[in-house]
Amino acid sequence: MGKLIFLDIDGTLVPAGTNAPPKSAERAIRLAQERGHRVFLCSGRNLGMLRPLLRYRFDGYVASSGGYVVLGEELLYDHPMSEEQLQTALDIFHKNGVVCTIEGRDGSFCDSDLKSLLSESEEGNSELLRWKKAVSENLGIRPMEEYDGQPIYKIVLAARGVGQIEACRPPLERDFNFMIQDIPEYGCVNGEMVDRAFDKGKGIIRIAERLGSALSDTIGFGDSRNDLEMMEVCGFSVCMGNGSEQLKKFADYVCPPVTEDGLAEAFRRLGLTES
Fold first, then answer.
1. How far is CA 193 from CA 74, 190, 236, 252, in A?
2. For residues 99-119, b (16+ Cβ closer than 10 Å) or e, as one string?
3. Which of 25, 151, 198, 268 has an alpha carbon within 20 to 30 A of 103's alpha carbon?
4. Residues 38, 30: contact at Cβ < 8 Å?
5. Where are the strands (E) in 64-210, listed by range?
6. Which of 164, 157, 160 is nearest to 178 (CA)?
């Protein structure tokens, strides 16, 4: 029986903020599928942001950090937060000076000072780099004032100091997990607030159960903090060489960076592209 392979997008399948996998990765995915394996996207991106990658014919996807899960053409899971949860969270974050981006299924809406805050950090993890590129190039992110009431799945956070985010935890963490990226030496702190009802790992479980596959037959590829639950669930986990130093400690294998054909090398090493 083939493996179920789950790929994070930014910093894993593609350089952060882009939508074109290296040719070596594209070929490795096709070869793996031809050998009976199934390959899925497993991302913090919402459907709108991951849609450009669907042309590569994946077998399904875990989107919005597990809040929206699709197998083939079948919707397995759809869990946005309530309007009350959203407004309560935004009030608390804004009171503490935390800059927010709220993500619907297809649209994202950001606070007006997000661009200036992101510009203060010259470097960053893959999630931070993705948002910097998305905001600077106007890639489908609209001002918060244009929010149209659509269901929201998660809130992306950014602040000048981790203390601002930590101050928001007590009234919110009963219902939500805070996934904060490795704390940088300088620049802004970033992360996500995600409903405890789901995460990437739970999304993988939902797909595996629907297919009748054992979790021991799953392989997860990631690079940042929001991939931890995926790695904890999968039978085998791979962290990219460009990934979080903390995440590498949890991985079964660390492959070369995404820009050095790391995905193709890992597929070869794991026997996914060879008979």
1. 26, 10, 26, 27
2. bbbbbbbebbbbbeebeebbe
3. 25
4. no
5. 68-71, 74-78, 99-103, 108-110, 141-143, 154-159, 176-180, 189-195
6. 157
Structure confidence at residue 16 (pLDDT):
82
Partnered with residue 10 across adjacent β-strands are 14
Average pLDDT along the chain:
89
> Domains of the chain (ranges plus CATH)?
4-79+198-269 (3.40.50.1000), 83-195 (3.30.1240.10)
Which residues are within 8 A (CB) of 270 and not within 5 positions of it... i.e. 6 or more apart?
Answer: 219, 236, 238, 253
* Other CB atoms within 10 Å distance of the CB of residue 171: 12
Calpha distance 185→92 (Å, rounded): 26
Beta 141-143 vs 108-110: how paired, if at all? parallel
The residue assigned the tokens 């190039």 is 137
pLDDT digits (tens, 9 = 90+) for 14-25: 998 789 999 999
Tokens in use for 191?
């992360």
3-class DSSP assignment, residue 152: strand
| Cβ-based burial of 144 (10 A; exposed 0-12, middle 13-18, buried ≥19) | middle
Amino acid (1-letter code) at residue 211: L
Cβ atoms of residues 198 and 153 within 8 Å: no
Low-confidence stretches of the chain (pLDDT beneath 50): 138
Beta bridge partners of 62: 42, 69
For residue 23, count other CB atoms closer than 10 A to its CB.
10
**pLDDT given at position 274:** 78
* Distances in whole angstroms, Cα of residue 91 to Cα of each of 82, 88, 225: 14, 5, 25
> Whats the size of the chain, residue-wise?
275
